[in-house]
Design goal:
Blueprint: H1 2-28, H2 47-52, H3 59-67, H4 93-129, H5 134-141, H6 146-168, H7 172-185, H8 191-207, H9 211-224, H10 229-241, H11 245-258, H12 263-299, E1 309-313, E2 320-324
Antiparallel strand pairs: 1-2
Helix pairs in contact: 6-7, 6-8, 7-8, 8-9, 8-10, 9-10, 10-11, 11-12
């Protein structure tokens, strides 16, 4: 009887314990508090409870945010990157040295450009100084009487005589100016007088080392007077001095037509043909050398060179034949 009462009391006690547990889960919605004993700790941990407790590491990102305050609110693409020397605006001594070279080259180009511009300005000024507007003279003469033309001619002769005096005194620039003044007023109706002025001005320009412009003045003088031997002779000499050997030979031959006993022209006619041949041979060698260099550039990839090809001139026709040699002489 006593054992039966004990069993009934034990069953009531279990029912009370079960009812109390269900009531706690409904009200709190969480598991019972963990017992204090270490032995019972594992019995109250489930896999679901461990997953629920993982976000405890939330404090770590906060620490990183506190240490990275300088980049807070910046997009990753907006964070400045550290570039190598020279790319982020900084300059190393080597960069400075490179800039110095660039500046030096730019300065040299600038100086050269200024010199070219200055030379061009000087050339234009020289052209303006000796420019003669013949169209203006032509229009001016339409309304001039013979007396007025004569007066202009006499005035131009005065300038010519003044130029001759200055030329003999070695004042070549002043002489050039005087001859130009005479050309600007001498009527076109007097081509011989104008031819003499142009020829004299050519002599002054030649002394000033303006040989190309002197040749131009000689040509104008010859246009005005085709039998003006002195002008042809002067142009022949200037052509030879400037390397225009073919033109010089023609002019000397023309002088002999006008003056068959001209000794200087006879010597030039005998001298110039050999000089022209020598010059042409030299030019031909230079041209063949350039062609040979160009040919080697194209033949080198095939293991060949222009030495594999021999150029021979046919004595009967004057033409050239090309033969191939597999083993050229070194």
């Amino acid at each position: 009887m006593e054992s039966l009462e004990k069993e009934m009391a034990s069953a009531d006690l279990c029912d009370k314990v079960d009812k109390g547990s269900s009531k706690c889960e409904v009200e709190d919605g969480s598991r019972p508090s963990t017992p204090l004993s270490d032995a019972s700790d594992d019995s109250f941990h489930s896999l679901e409870d461990e997953d629920r407790e993982m976000p405890v590491h939330e404090s770590e990102p906060r620490a990183s945010e506190e240490t990275d305050e300088s980049s807070e609110g910046c997009h990753p693409s907006e964070i400045p990157l550290i570039e190598p020397d020279g790319k982020d605006g900084t300059e190393t001594p080597e960069h400075l040295h490179g800039d110095d070279k660039t500046s030096e080259n730019s300065w040299e180009k600038l100086v050269t450009q200024e010199q070219d511009e200055q030379q061009q300005i000087e050339d234009e000024e020289e052209e303006e100084e000796d420019f003669v507007d013949e169209e203006y003279l032509k229009d001016l003469e339409l309304n001039m009487s013979e007396e007025e033309k004569n007066a202009k001619r006499e005035e131009s002769q005065t300038h010519k005589e003044s130029g001759n005096i200055k030329f003999k005194a070695g004042q070549f620039q002043e002489a050039l100016t005087s001859y130009t003044a005479g050309l600007r007023i001498c009527p076109l109706a007097y081509p011989r007088d104008r031819a003499i002025l142009y020829s004299n001005r050519a002599a002054a320009k030649a002394r000033l080392n303006l040989k190309k412009k002197a040749i131009s003045d000689c040509s104008k003088a010859i246009e005005l007077d085709s039998v003006y031997t002195k002008a042809v002779m002067r142009r022949a000499t200037l052509n030879e001095e400037t390397g225009n050997l073919d033109e010089a030979l023609k002019d000397f031959q023309r002088v002999l037509e006008l003056d068959p006993v001209n000794k200087e022209s006879h010597e030039a006619v005998r001298r110039l043909p050999d000089m022209i041949t020598e010059r042409n041979e030299k030019l031909k060698e230079e041209m063949l050398g350039k062609l040979k260099d160009l040919g080697n550039v194209f033949l080198r990839p095939f293991g060949l060179s222009t030495s594999n090809f021999e150029l021979k001139q046919d004595s009967s026709t004057g033409g050239y034949n090309i033969s191939f040699n597999q083993n050229p002489k070194s």
